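Bumping with the actual sequence this time:
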Amino acid sequence: MEKTVSFGGDCNIGVFTRVFDDIAVVPPNAPGDFCEALTGLLGVEIVETTIQGSAIIGSLLAGNRHGFVVSGFAEETEIARLSEYRELCLLTHTMNAAGNILLASDSLTLAHPDMPEQMAEEIGDILKTPVHRTTIAGIKTVGMAAVASARGIMVHPRTTRHELAGLESLSDLPIGTGSVNMGSGLVGTGLVANSRGYMAGLETTGFELGRIDDIFGFLERT
């Protein structure tokens, strides 16, 4: 199965879905071929919902196997749907696009550097990980600038040596720089990954796919 897909013609697939090892959360209008690729490549159950009535799930939802962090503007039916799978932390602060301001894995959470300390502590309690406020390539919306799974962390190609050193001090996972969709450093918008595999935006080149394989340790499967 091809590792590059689009979401109804849009190569920014990370904007529309949030992937975990057990499930992928997608909007109800997710194309059938997109959902088939998720189940085939990543081995996940498809969970359909909107957030704030919107299809941009990847921008509004973050989390790990312990919990979800979601915009506090989510509707009651959306909260109920997500609560079937994880405990929720609702962001009522003006900084509420959880998928953009957080990069979460089962062992580590990075957050927007301007996030209030109490908010970071509440998120850490739900996700059961330390929360570190930082930037990636100088970008405050760390969820857009990186992708993390149990196998590795891929970050924006302009991530500084200082930022990389900081990440390496926080995690034992492989960490590397890369891009998607013909040079976009906002890898969180064009790549989704879990411990079983990954999917990249349709415009991602062979060279970029090789870099993703290398960072996440999938070279032996290609």
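The tokens above came from a reply further down the thread. The chain is about 30% helix and 25% strand.
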